[in-house]
Amino acid sequence: MQYQWMFDGVASEVTKQQRARVIEMVEAAMALGQGRVVLNWRISGKLAQSALLTRATFNEDAADAAWAHDQTTRLSLECTSFPLS
User: Fold this and answer.
1) Do 72 and 7 form a contact (C-beta atoms < 8 A)?
2) Which residues of the chain are under the pLDDT cut of 50?
3) Into how many domains does the chain fold?
4) Type and span of the H or E element at 29
């Protein structure tokens, strides 16, 4: 969702729903007392995804932007394809 709302409002609603389901599954599987660790994973993941999205979206180097776009797509699919299908 990081930048999606700027470019595709309808798809960002789908992403918002997927995000909520992933968070729900993580919280359900999380061991008691692991909230801080899981929060750290979520924040680290968000920062990494943000860096890739910035490279993909606002990059003057077309080859690097394409690589970053491919990475964001691949990583997003890894996160959502199995648990949400």
Assistant:
1) no
2) none
3) 1
4) helix 9-29
